[in-house]
Amino acid sequence: MMDIGLDRARPGERWVLRCRRPDGSATDVVGWLAAIERATVQIAPERSDPVVVDRDVIILARRAPAARGGPDPMRTPVEELERAARPGWIAHHEPLGEWTLRDGGGFTARANSALAVGDPGVSLPEAADRVVAYAAAHGIEPWVQVIVDSAEDIALRGLGWQPVYLVTDVLVCRLTTLLRDGLPDPRVGVTEQLSEGWVRAYGRSRPNRLHQADLRTDAGHRTDGAAVRMILDGHPPRAFAAVADPSPGAHAAEAAHEPVAIARGHLSGPWLGMAAVWTEPEHRRRGLATAMMRALGHWAARGGARNAYLQVAQDNHAAHDAYGRLGFVRHHSYRYLTAPG
Fold it and tell me: What Pfam families does the entry give (predicted)?
């Protein structure tokens, strides 16, 4: 047995095990260590349940980066990244060629604007009219989301469409840079089930835009609340990170249901998109946001993600500085245009 290094391994780390086959050849098993026993090792390959490997067949073992590598995320075309991000925050929608018409019950600009990227399949004036008609039919403002200074941005502004709202920067980072060599913080729980406590915390994070009544689940809930849940809970794979109250003396039963910090992750191909990163004011400056983002990064890495992205208001300098310290850099920017008149 030559499983050099496994005695220093910790469950949750990503390792490469070179194993001897019965015919004398060798093969590599790459994955996350689930358990290390005297005679066996349980390792979970990407997108798979753990498998048991006899330690007697391990020729060599070495620790691997926490996520797969790949091309520099800055080399990803802007349009490709916008399409990867599209299912991460969406409710009702329908295609218009390569564009997407979106209706989220009026909740957030991103879910209630047409994503104008690529060829709409019709002339631009007709596409613009279709956006206006769709918005009118769904009772939302006629907005489009465009990449700043793209052909769509320039052409629509030539038709009289005007910028509204703030410019948003899209930041990107390799998962290996975000995760470094660490393991998930034990303070953070990650689940693929949207809990009522997480939803209540999300409502507290947006007191001026979202009323708790909008998130009710009984027969009297408002349509807006249903759309919010559709945005948060739809289009898996997605996961919800939460931190229970870490204060001394916190009631365990209440802490389990009322998180003090939350974040949401969405997996789209090699991309992890993170949103709704929020911590109760009295629990800030404890590293909880970073811990949740890294926990979601570990979850996404097991699903094949290589890179992460965030969408941040361009004038939110504090957030830019914080994410920059984690390795995020600006990839591109987008903004919203509204129809003339």
Answer: Rv0428c_C (PF24553)
* 225 and 302 share one domain: yes
Within a domain: residue 72? no
Does residue 114 fall inside a structural domain?
Answer: yes
Task: Answer yes or no: is 1 within a domain.
Answer: no
Same domain for 210 and 158: no
Positions of the chain with pLDDT under 50: 1-2, 211-223, 250-255
Greatest Cα pair distance, the chain, in angstroms, is: 76
The neighbouring-strand residues paired with 169 are 312, 333
Question: What is the Cα–Cα distance from 19 to 27, expressed in whole angstroms?
Answer: 5
Q: What is the pLDDT of residue 8?
A: 85
In sequence order, the 6+-apart residues with CB closer than 8 A to the CB of 298 are 12, 66, 179, 183, 184, 190
pTM value is: 0.90
The structural domain count of the chain equals 3
Q: What per-residue confidence (pLDDT) applies to 224?
A: 62
| Final residue before a domain boundary, out of 147, 166, 185 | 166
Q: Which long-range contacts (C-beta less than 8 Å, at least 24 apart) are formed by 57-60?
A: 57/19, 57/20, 57/21, 58/1, 58/2, 58/3, 58/6, 58/17, 58/18, 58/19, 58/20, 59/2, 59/18, 59/19, 59/20, 59/26, 60/2, 60/3, 60/4, 60/17, 60/18
Region of 139 please: left (phi>0), alpha (psi -120 to 50) or beta: left
Task: Please list the alpha-helical segments (H only) found in 92-170.
Answer: 124-138, 151-158
> How many residues would you count in the chain?
341
Q: Where in the sequence is the domain holding 162, given as residue range(s)?
A: 78-166
